[in-house]
Amino acid sequence: MKAKIFTYSTERLNSTQKSILSKRINGYIDKSNGSRYTYKRKGIFGKLPHIKITKKAFIIREQDFLHISKILKRYGATLKSWDIDIKKL
Known about the structure:
Structural class: alpha+beta
Distance between the termini: 8 Å
Shape: globular
């Protein structure tokens, strides 16, 4: 199976932009009404099959890479990727 290993950098982003991007990618827990209700908001990787290598390095299917790269570039992250072949994801 064709896959991509990629890493992204948020060095050029301010802290607000980093937080927004992190929530968009990884998801977050939302609490309302004095923490009575808890909601788990899924990020992009909550919906796609992936392998998380480090905090900012992932392996994903090649067809999903275009979607992820558009989102990362929209937020101003620097992206590096490599093509790999794996048995199953």
